[in-house]
Amino acid sequence: MGRLVIGVGAFKPEMAELGAQVLGGSQLVADEPAGARHEAGDLLRAGVDWGQVKSLAQALRGELDLAKPVAFKSVGTGAWDLAAGRVAWQASSFGQVASI
Questions:
Q1: pLDDT score of 20
Q2: Could you say which of 16, 26, 62, 68 would form a disulfide bridge with 42 (CB–CB 3.0 to 4.6 Å)?
Q3: Domain residue limits, the chain
Q4: Is 98 helix (H, G, I), strand (E, B) or coil?
């Protein structure tokens, strides 16, 4: 498996945490590419080809070449926060009690 770099902090166009060199040599994945086009400063500053940015859903379906480096960029999509919360709730004792 190739390398994985994750960026979760820069969520405004003027912010960046991943450099153009890292992004240019990696497969690009964003939690939500449509949102990243407006918020992911690292991707915007690097002038990435948005046609090459895959969504997290595509990555989870296995649509990546794992022999290549992957750069994942999260801009904080509410739907993914809700999904993570549901998984955490269901895995907790609270979720088990609520489902009885």
A1: 92
A2: 16
A3: 4-98
A4: helix
Instruction: Classify 4-98 by CATH class.
Output: alpha beta
The reported pLDDT for the residue numbered 85 is 77
Environment class of 37 (CB within 10 Å of its CB; exposed 0-12, middle 13-18, buried 19+): middle
Ordered mean pLDDT values, 10 residues apiece, the chain (100 residues): 79 90 92 91 94 92 90 80 78 60
Query: What count of other Cβ atoms lies within 10 Å of the Cβ of residue 66?
Result: 12
Alpha carbon of 66 to those of 7, 17, 22, 53, 86: distances in Å?
18, 23, 16, 15, 28
DSSP letters spanning 56-68? HHHHHTT-S-TTS
